[in-house]
């Protein structure tokens, strides 16, 4: 294939050899660096964790937690520097605002604070939906239950040059919940994770988009899918998604 190149140059740059080399360098194919094959930074020995804390996490009672909560609420006061100007944001101390404007604006601010304190919904009538997370703990007893990866998944990993310790994501939507609400599925899923039935998993419910995301290592993804189908009574297929690679398996 031929390509026409138009080179614009200044009048005093008339060296044809230099101009030709410059044009050839401009249309030269850009080099592409081959990314190295992914390898985990920790040993592939699944019988022990790469990092293990020396001490157990601290445990506090419900009474202590309530005391800390009360202390945190009572200590939420603004402590400014000594030269802090307390009149900076007050309307009545602004030179370009009249007394009538100050009264009207102060009343509107008071009404907005009162609405927030009463917990009323915003004008559009919708609550601000929050995300929730649930994280699993490692369980070495599951090692014997986990079967080797299927031939289809192994072929996909080899084709895409993905390691078994890449993180992947299963997505649960309302359409596969089998007459259950997404919140019901989320409660059941939390129990599974707390009981260490889903290895390497952490999950989040995205209420704003109506989905539950379950993240796990590809090594355990088929085992996790079977547990989800059995315990949560899910219907139809679920897609396994890897970031930047898209769907790599439907199960």
Class based on secondary structure composition and strand pairing:
alpha+beta
Number of strands: 6
CATH class designation of the domain at 152-250: Alpha Beta
Helical region count? 6
Q: In which range does the helix fraction lie? A: 25-40%
Q: Ranges with pLDDT <50 over ≥5 residues?
A: 76-84, 99-119
As a whole number of angstroms, the C-alpha radius of gyration is 30 Å
Protein name: SHLD3 protein
InterPro entries: Shieldin_RINN1 (IPR039996)
What features would you highlight for this structure?
31% helix; Shieldin_RINN1; SHLD3 protein; elongated; 251 residues; Alpha-Beta Plaits; 13% strand; 6-stranded antiparallel sheet; alpha+beta; 6 strands; 6 helices
Notes on the protein architecture:
The chain has 251 residues and is an alpha+beta fold. It has a domain at 152-250: Alpha-Beta Plaits, CATH 3.30.70. It contains six helices and six strands; from the N terminus they run αααβαβαββαββ. Strands 1-3-4-2-5-6 form a six-stranded antiparallel sheet, with helices on one face. The longest helix has 19 residues, at 99-117. The chain is elongated, with a radius of gyration of 30 Å.
Short description:
It comes from Psilopogon haemacephalus. With 251 residues, the protein is an alpha+beta fold.
Please give the structural blueprint.
Layout: H1 16-26, H2 62-74, H3 99-117, E1 132-135, H4 151-160, E2 167-173, H5 182-194, E3 202-206, E4 211-217, H6 221-232, E5 239-242, E6 246-250
Antiparallel strand pairs: 1-3, 2-4, 2-5, 3-4, 5-6
């Amino acid at each position: 294939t031929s390509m026409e190149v138009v080179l614009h140059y200044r009048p005093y740059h008339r060296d044809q050899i230099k101009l030709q080399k410059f044009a050839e360098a401009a249309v030269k194919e850009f080099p592409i660096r081959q990314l190295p094959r992914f390898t985990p930074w920790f040993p592939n020995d699944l019988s022990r964790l790469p990092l293990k804390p020396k001490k157990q996490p601290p445990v506090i009672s419900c009474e202590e937690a309530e005391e800390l909560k009360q202390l945190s609420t009572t200590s939420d006061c603004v402590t400014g520097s000594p030269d802090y100007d307390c009149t900076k944001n007050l309307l009545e101390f602004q030179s370009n605002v009249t007394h009538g404007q100050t009264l009207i604006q102060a009343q509107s601010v008071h009404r907005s604070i009162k609405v927030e304190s009463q917990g009323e919904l915003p004008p559009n009538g919708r609550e601000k939906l929050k995300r929730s997370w649930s994280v699993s703990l490692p369980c070495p007893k599951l090692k014997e239950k986990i079967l080797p990866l299927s031939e289809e998944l192994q072929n996909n990993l080899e084709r895409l040059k993905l390691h078994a310790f890449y993180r992947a994501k299963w997505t649960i939507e309302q359409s596969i919940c089998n007459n259950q609400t997404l919140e019901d599925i989320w409660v059941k899923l939390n129990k599974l994770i707390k009981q260490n039935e889903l290895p390497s998993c952490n999950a989040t419910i995205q209420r704003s988009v109506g989905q539950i995301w379950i993240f796990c290592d590809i090594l355990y993804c088929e085992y996790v899918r079977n547990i989800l189908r059995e315990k949560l009574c899910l219907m139809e297929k679920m897609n396994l998604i890897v970031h930047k690679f898209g769907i790599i398996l439907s199960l």
